[in-house]
Amino acid sequence: MNVTTSETRIDPIRLEVIRMRLDSIVEEMGIAMIRSSGSPVITEAGDFNTALFDPTGRIYAYSDFVQFHIGSGSVAVQELVKTIGDEPVFPGDAFISNDPHTSGASHPPDTNIISPIFAGDDLVGWAQSQAHLVDVGGMTAGGFAPGAYDCYSEALRLPPGVKIFDRGEPVEAVRRLILNNVRVPALFWNDVRSLIASNNTGIRRLLATIDEFGLDEFRECTRLSFELAEKVVRSRISRIPDGVYEAEEWTEHNGHVDELFRVACTMTKTGDHIDFDFTGSSPQTDGFVNCSFGALVGSVASAVVPILAWDVPFNEGVMTAFGVEAETGSIVKPVPPAPISNGHLTTGARVSRVITKLLSEACSRSTDEEIVGRAQGVWADSWTGGISAGTTDNDGEFFVLFNMDGGGMGSGAQPTRDGLDCAGMMTQVNNMLPDVEMNEMLYPVLYLWKQLNVDSAGHGAHRGGLGLQFAWTLHGSQEVTQTVFAPNSAVVADGFAGGLPGGGSGHRVLRQTDVASALRIGDVPTRERLTFSEDELLGINQQSVAIRKDDVLVQWIAGGGGFGDPLLRDPAAVRSDVIDGYVTSKVAREVYGVVLRHDSFEEVAIDSSATVQERRRIRSARVPSSGEDSYLQVTDLDEAVHMITAPKRDGKGWYCPSSGARLGEADDWREAAVRVRTPAAQRLGELGVHARERSSRSERILLEELFSPGCGTLLSARVLVEPTEE
Length: 726
Description:
This protein has a 7-stranded antiparallel sheet, sandwiched between helices. A 5-stranded antiparallel sheet has the order 16-17-22-19-20, with helices on one face. Strands 10-11-12-13 form a 4-stranded mixed sheet, covered by helices on one side. By secondary structure, it is an alpha+beta fold. It contains 18 helices and 29 strands. The chain is globular. α1 (12-36) packs antiparallel against α6 and α8 runs parallel beside α10. The termini are far apart.
């Protein structure tokens, strides 16, 4: 069997061998980086990417470590190609860049090393490796600078075209310049060498592949792989109804002021193509939450790929099926001097969330069940960060701990299953949480607990994933300077199809605790057992926080949104959640309508009759005017759970899929729904979910719940930002 194109016939087996060989090469590049790096950010958390590009900057293959580097890596290679133009390039050369404004980096610590690949005299591509390096200079250790008002304060900025290796040897002048501007020069240079080792691995393996198959066949197979990937993605897009869809998200606090910054997107779907237009987003700000264009593209792709290209081998063809537009000078396409050191984890994460909202809404309106099944609750995203800098007691050595536990946020629930606990960001699904023992071995900290954050999951027929909660105290250092950011605090992740939003993130410091004496007598320190002089809630973004010996830093991380009305959750699943400690008996009853009791053997059992009555009571409270006969009964559950989705439309108008109750014939089903809006933090607290209360004269954060007037089913629960009337 052959694959026929307009120019040639390709053996599909050889085509697939070359395609899989490229995927294997970029994975092996990652292994080489891990084995040669000394940074736990790389070795433990996997905060990096590796990729191969063609001579013009199109993606041959991309590893699945950090997804939003899809954009920043691509822009970095493309800008390098533009910058160097016809300058001579040789085997063994390598270029370094990290400036978000000129090279597309996600933020300055995400440093790119790009190396040319030559087959004889022919430039056949580029090997690209990018990793978060622990320090890149600037005003704050670790590269995140909440206090910065411009990009010049944040880091040493390396534009495209800076050669760091020349024909296999370090460019000493450049090396000396860079190392003179970073706080941990030995670690920095070793990580640069690990990125070089990664690229060299990719170069060797790619040239061996070209030698095996020949350059002409390699080029033809990669061209065809681009075409096939694009064709599959476009075929799935074509199964989404044409239309214009709009959604928004909000970035919280820019490092200086506790304001909200809008991330708006209009998605236009026409035929087999989608355009994402971010016109209407807030102007760039003087705080560190601006998102580089490279991070914007990567954040869009990070949501598109798992929703529409979940099984498509990733290459340039996936990217050509959609377009991204943004206004220059906006928060999603800033220009100097906009600071940018946390834009990818704040505004960039909101981009992924808004794309998830748009695609879920569009997919839910499809007539294709496979596409309908791609809708989901919103992931928590928005990394909760903690960076500690200080010196050790033993030798006075300076250290910077960038705690990668901040990636432990919950994912959104799916139409058929709960979200994953501590799943990471949608843009970083292959990140790993560091071992407690590894952090304790490398840094002077002692963990007191590390557990699931039970106040974080979005409730639903399928529950959103829980986030992480942990605490540590200093062990081997008298004091550290702490930088924190918790960008998913008040405007939390939405659910879908009646699933509730998840909880938020934050930090607090328990001052002058009795942790040392508790440990001496063998008492396990917990939040309930510790005594302290002060419970200090830290700001959403804050730097230069002093944490001293016997203080305890507590960090909690957000959870994902739920999917479907919680009253449609299987009571047996709720019972298991209570037994496992995921939800309390109070939440089981008041949110899920499941009444539990202890039987004669002191085991937790479901009171089925009481559960029927409790679910009926909750529905009645939601929509008092509904007729009792229209309420879903528990006996209808098996059929109803197979119909959990957003409202659907037929020839008679809109209806609730779970019950069949009609929702009118208007263009928007929301016009017929029973609408209830309450302050979000208050309402979520009543539902057993924690979100930060926010006081502002300019806007209110509300939870909007929309109920079917005929059956009382919760059809939508979303967080809204509404301007207040002056």
